[in-house]
Amino acid sequence: SGCQSRCRYTSRHAEHCLSVKSRPTPRAWISTGPQQQHGTFYEFRTYYIQPHLNAAFLKLTNEKIHLRTAHSELIGYWSVEYGGLNQVFHIWKYDSYAQRASVRAALAQDPNWIEQYISKAMPMLSSQDNEVTYLVPWSKIQKPPKDGGVFELATFQMKPGGPAVWGRAFQAAVGTHTGSGYAHAVGVFHSEFGQLNQVFVLWWFESADQRAAIRHTSHEDARVVAAVRESAAYLVSHKNKLMLPCAFSPIK
């Protein structure tokens, strides 16, 4: 009968709904690259100094940076020479966001830090900026073979998609430079907070002139040219800064 038919349909429909609900939900990751396996991150800070106070800021920082490094680890501190005027760039390492929060809270209660440094330094700045980054999975911090020299911070704005899309090509481009002895990579980082889909390579050279000579030579190397061309297919834009390490910088 029509009633029995409707009852059978209703029963089958209910069974179907129950079977759908009981199926395991497929797992999907929003990340398209290797998952971060630990909490360590690196905060990039850029301070823009009022031009007439640049020397005074660097002198004060040199004298009082120990008040800041008593709270957390400084990786490096540089003065920008080319690619930006009256700027300093520094990298701080943290084991977790909780650690950074506790460091910031401790600094806010540190009278020596406030009275001897921060109250004097802040009026010398025109602005500040920061970004949170992670090392890419195939990179680690590697100090230069010797002190001195110059550092280049190269920033690459990549197409969206993450390391699963451009990671292999980018690693090959970096690898052809380091593997051929053209440059020393201090570290390769990708952005977590700030402008997303950015990769940063911190290079070390013996001098600005050595960098210029190496670029001329490497651009005639077929291996470098091929790797860079493949990586460039995923590139939106890029920029760089040439920096000099401050005397108190751990990496210099």
TrEMBL record:
Coiled coil (residue ranges): none
Location of the NIPSNAP domain: 42-140, 151-250
Gene3D superfamilies in the record: 3.30.70.100
GO BP: mitophagy
Highest taxon of source: Eukaryota
Cellular component GO terms held in the UniProt record: mitochondrion
Transmembrane spans: none
Pfam families reported in the protein's UniProt record: NIPSNAP (PF07978)
PANTHER family hit by this protein: NIPSNAP-RELATED, PROTEIN NIPSNAP HOMOLOG 3B
Family: Belongs to the NipSnap family.
Name by which UniProt lists this protein: NIPSNAP domain-containing protein
